[in-house]
Amino acid sequence: MSPHHHAYLWHGHGTLLVTPGDAHRRPGHPEFPTAPVMPLETAHWLLKASAHVRATFPRPTEAAAWYTEQLQQHTGILTGTYAPAPDPGEIVRRLTAREDLVGGWWTTGGRFLHLGLIACGPHPHRPQHPCPLRTGQASASPGAPTP
């Protein structure tokens, strides 16, 4: 399968990240495949149930557009101060280099927003991780690009 990026988004209460501990965010834990929270290692998204895939992008420009759009949609609920979002050109450069792109922000109500674009086909640092699309069960947002 040709190189691509899978998009992931989690927006939930921050206590789910650490309650009770973080074992559910590690492969091998019985809840890991279906737990909605992000894994401790970004490449481990590929080991979770394919239903967590929000979209799949064969082109870095499309993936960068999704990432910046999601961040813009949530800007009004971010709390605290954060470094500025990466320039869209820098996002495209990183994705073209087959890097993962992830971000996390605290939002109102003690919630946490996680956005991730995870390299696949294969992952550059975890080539043994299977592509969620190979299972034939990948799920994406309506109208989301897929390879």
Give me the count of strands: 4
Query: How many helix segments?
Result: 2
How are the strands of the largest sheet arranged?
2-1-4-3
Low-confidence stretches: 136-147
Mean pLDDT: 89
Order of helices and strands: EEHHEE
Rg over alpha carbons = 15 Å
Q: What percent of residues adopt helix (DSSP H or I)?
A: 10-25%
User: How is the biggest beta sheet arranged?
Assistant: 4 strands, antiparallel
Shape: flat
**Termini gap:** 9 Å
- Strand fraction equals 15-25%
Class based on secondary structure composition and strand pairing:
alpha+beta
The oligomeric status of these chains comes to single chain
Q: Short summary of the structure?
A:
16% of the residues lie in helices and 20% in strands.
Task: Write the SSE topology.
Elements: E1 4-13, E2 55-57, H1 60-74, H2 88-96, E3 101-107, E4 111-120
Antiparallel strand pairs: 1-2, 1-4, 3-4
Helix pairs in contact: 1-2
Would you write up a description of this structure?
With 147 residues, the chain is of the alpha+beta class. The protein contains 2 helices and 4 strands. It has helices spanning 60-74, 88-96, and strands at 4-13, 55-57, 101-107, 111-120. Strands 2-1-4-3 form a 4-stranded antiparallel sheet.
Characteristic terms for this protein:
four-stranded antiparallel sheet, flat, 20% strand, 147 residues
